[in-house]
Amino acid sequence: MKRHLNSTLLYVLLTIAAALILYPVIYTFFMAVMSPEEASAYPPSFLPHSFHMENFTEVFEIVPIAAFIGNTFLISGLTMIGQLITASLAAYAFAKMDFKGKNFIFSMFVATMMIPWEVTIIPNYLTVRSWNWLDTYQGLTVPFLATAFGTFLLRQFFLQLPKELFEAARMDGCGHIRYFVFHVLPLSRPALGTLAVYSFLNMYNSYLWPLLITNSENMRTVQIGISMLEFQESTSWNLVFAGTALVILPSLLLLIFGLKQLVRGMAAGALKG
Amino acid sequence: MGELNKSMGLGTRSQQQISSKARIRTGSLKIQRLRENALAYTFLAPSLILFAVFMFYPMIKSVYLSLHSTDPAGNVAAYVGLDNFTTLFSSGLFLQGIKVTLLFALLTVPVGILLALVLAALTHSKLRGMRIFQFAFSLPMVLSVGSSAVIWKFLFHPTLGMFNYVLSLLHINPVPWLTSPDWALFSVAMMTIWMNLGFNYIILSSGLQGIPDDMYESAKMDGAGPLVTFWRISLPLLSPTIFFVTVVSIIGAFQSFAQINILTKGGPVNSTNVFVYSIYQEAFVNFRFGTGSAQAIVLFAVILLLTMIQFKWVERKVHYQ
């Protein structure tokens, strides 16, 4: 009886906590379908009483949100692929190869993890500007193509692969490149998946760098676009929220499909790394 | 006999063969080692080049810029020595910025971790439906600072916002969330705690899952209640994870920018003017890259110091299995 009461209490507590935490997100989707009058009415309504799907089409007319989303997906995808390539190559060298200066280079990689990105932002801005890379896709992506965190994550995973496998492959005359491409990479899909989700989300959500180096409206990313939407005095809140709903939708989908992967990888990075 | 002769006769030859083979082998070993070195550096090259251009060079350039004054285009105008730093430390605005950042960390880090810890502990049971709660509590993690800040800006709205409306239902006077210097930092902190909850929750609950079940079994056998079990077993074994989350959260607090830029723009009266925001202001609004870099160097020093303190002192007290 007491046990039953306890678990009921637990469910009540958790439901309240979940409702409070989810509220801003649920509210976004409610606001996104409200009529303009309802969205700016007082008292504000908890639940939408109207259903205005045309908010979504309208928001496409006011701001080039399709371009924002396209840009963001493009740069997030490019960064993701780039990071997967550079990090897996470097991680393989650290995990499976012997070479001069390994320890020194490895500690240099450690050092980069200690440098906050914000500290290097002024020189990086000047560099990118001097190359005329402002307002370009390469300006948005190239500085982020290498990742120390990702290298560590993958190195950890590569180290766990059984030694016997490597020896057997070597006996069969398999060189490093073949071993890397045909054995290590396919076996490391879980770790590569984690890094993929992680780097995609990171880029999708980045704010300061795109804010600095993009000027023209059609180069903006969603995060900047959405905050610009809010500064336009003429737009009403329901449209701002329709835009926001569109922007957070991909991340929510990623969470639904990638939660397990993400959790496993982040935990590995946090606990073993 | 003939065989022996043969083998003896071959002896000298085979010895020669062996030595030449050995020579070839050491030679090929050398070549192989060279090849492995070359291949390893080829594998490392993309990362190394990118780090050199976008990490190491900018670090050095930051130090260089911090010792110079620049024109608004970013060209170096003159060597000024430590002038940028003395200007910074004698300006009340910068010291205010440090104070605000510390306060921000103090407001966000302990509450954020404590909340996540409680939720992680509560969902760490094999009851039905826990996955739904796990999903709900991890959700803020995937939302970007940019869009979260826009959502919260409306929740904070003085008249239309939900917060003040709920307060009015409770007959409490409306709160000037973002418009009063007394409240603004607190409001931004509230939003930040919400935003960080997902990450903290995920890390802490996977830390809890890493604790072996037999620990709990034996505690149960000894008649320990859930609170005692949590206090005596989960918490000590979780300390490395808590340590990690603390380090990450503090560093995160020192790097916050987007929510400040969207919610308050450093105001009102600089009450939310945190470190990175003032670097941004100095370099990209006022175009003073020298003093901006000096601030960046100070930020780097602070984060480095924090990390080292944590690793030196806190880690010693942390319980590793």
Summarize the structure.
Chain A has 273 residues and is mostly helical. Helix content of chain A is 75%, strand content 0%.
Give an overview in words:
The complex is a heterodimer of chains A (273) and B (321). Helices cover 75% and strands 0% of the residues of chain A. Chain A has 273 residues and is mainly alpha-helical. Chain B is an all-alpha fold and 321 residues long. Chain B has helices spanning 2-66, 83-90, 92-123, 130-138, 145-155, 162-169, 184-209, 213-221, 226-254, 258-263, 275-285, 289-317; strands spanning 68-70, 76-79. A two-stranded antiparallel ribbon of chain B has the order 1-2. In chain B, a hairpin with a 5-residue loop joins strand 1 (68-70) and strand 2 (76-79). In chain B, helix 3 (92-123) packs antiparallel against helix 4 (130-138) and helix 7 (184-209) packs across helix 9. The longest helix of chain B is centred in the N-terminal third of the chain and has 65 residues, at 2-66. The termini of chain B are far apart.
* Multimer state: heterodimer
Overall pLDDT of chain A, averaged? 86
Low-confidence stretches of chain A: none
Q: DSSP helix count of chain B?
A: 12
Strand content of chain A: under 5%
Radius of gyration of chain A: 24 Å
**Strand fraction of chain B:** under 5%
Architecture blueprint of SSEs:
The complex is a heterodimer of chains A (273) and B (321).
Chain A lengths: L1 H31 L3 H4 L14 H9 L2 H32 L5 H13 L6 H10 L6 H5 L6 H13 L2 H9 L4 H12 L1 H16 L3 H6 L8 H10 L5 H35 L2
Helix pairs in contact in A: 1-14, 3-14, 4-8, 4-11, 4-13, 8-11, 11-14, 13-14
Chain B lengths: L1 H65 L1 E3 L5 E4 L3 H8 L1 H32 L6 H9 L6 H11 L6 H8 L14 H26 L3 H9 L4 H29 L3 H6 L11 H11 L3 H29 L4
Antiparallel strand pairs in B: 1-2
